[in-house]
From TrEMBL:
Residues 1-24 are annotated as: Disordered. This is GSK3-beta interaction protein. One of its GO terms (biological process) is regulation of canonical Wnt signaling pathway. One of its GO terms (cellular component) is cytoplasm. It comes from the Eukaryota. One of its GO terms (molecular function) is kinase regulator activity. It comes from Phoenicopterus ruber ruber. Gene3D superfamilies: Hypothetical protein (hspc210) (3.30.2280.10). Residues 34-134 form the GSKIP domain. Belongs to the GSKIP family.
């Protein structure tokens, strides 16, 4: 498998890769580029953590990407993103620890929910604000 560097500057600003056939495998097997998936994950929850970015030092490939996250509690993690989901692979940025046997989470939401009470609170509040806004829209 060919490994590529993770450079977010090369990524298109729209990470709607599912609709974009340019990112599909030749045989139409619809292989996701994990670097693009990782960027989408970061963009989704960045507002609810202190810092989050795709690793520039760990190798990205078609089937794996690494995301560094610092929770609002100031805990640092390196996350591995694969087809199996997301899991913590180290307790610092740009690291992997093969001895760490952490469970996979299907979504970044459930992973962060298990790591960070502050994330849970911020995300919940944002959700409530969106619901309130929708309620106001539907009443006008």
């Amino acid at each position: 498998r060919m490994e590529t560097d993770c450079n977010p500057m090369e990524l298109p600003s729209n990470t709607g890769f599912e609709e974009d056939s340019d990112y599909r495998d030749f045989e139409g097997t619809d292989v996701k580029d994990m670097r693009l998936e990782a960027e989408a994950v970061v963009n989704d929850v960045l507002f609810a953590v202190s810092n989050m970015f795709v690793s520039k030092t760990l190798p990205c490939a078609e089937d794996v990407a690494y995301i560094n996250v610092e929770t609002r509690e100031r805990n640092r993690y390196c996350l591995e993103l694969t087809e199996a989901g997301l899991r913590v692979v180290a307790y610092d940025f740009d690291q992997t620890d093969d001895r760490l046997q952490t469970p996979y989470h299907e979504t970044v939401y459930s992973l962060l929910d298990s790591l960070s009470p502050a994330y849970r609170e911020v995300f919940g509040n944002a959700l409530l604000q969106r619901l309130e806004a929708l309620k106001k829209d539907s009443q006008s």
